[in-house]
Design goal:
Elements (H helix, E strand, L loop, with lengths): L2 H18 L3 H18 L4 E4 L3 E4 L2 H8 L6 E2 L6 E4 L1 H8 L3
Antiparallel strand pairs: 1-2, 1-4, 3-4
Bound molecules: zinc ion.
Length: about 100
């Protein structure tokens, strides 16, 4: 699913939940968390996993991994050793 369609589907779910007024507070908190993760996903941090392909890292996850003593990158989904995606990073930060 593309980033845009994922955001749209979360917003649609949110609207439906507001309309239904079903377990309102808990669901809204979940959606806000999901949206925050997605927003983090456009920070420009991503890895290329051999299994999951390109996976965006949240800002939190990026800084967690970058502060590890090893210089490996791990897939946040499956834990496989991955390569950092320089292309996405440079498109976001202009390749410092
Ligand atoms: Zn993976």
């Amino acid at each position: 699913m593309s980033f845009e369609s994922e955001v749209i589907s979360i917003i649609e779910d949110l609207i439906k939940e507001i309309a239904l007024h079903h377990a309102f507070k808990a669901n809204v908190a979940d959606r806000i968390r999901q949206l925050r993760d997605l927003i983090d996903a456009v920070t420009g941090y991503a890895i290329d996993c051999p299994k999951c392909n390109t996976v965006h890292l949240s800002k939190e996850e990026y800084f967690r991994q970058v502060s590890q003593p090893d210089d490996r990158w791990e897939c946040p989904k499956c834990g496989a050793i991955s390569d950092f995606n320089d292309e996405i990073y440079e498109s976001k930060f202009g390749g410092l």
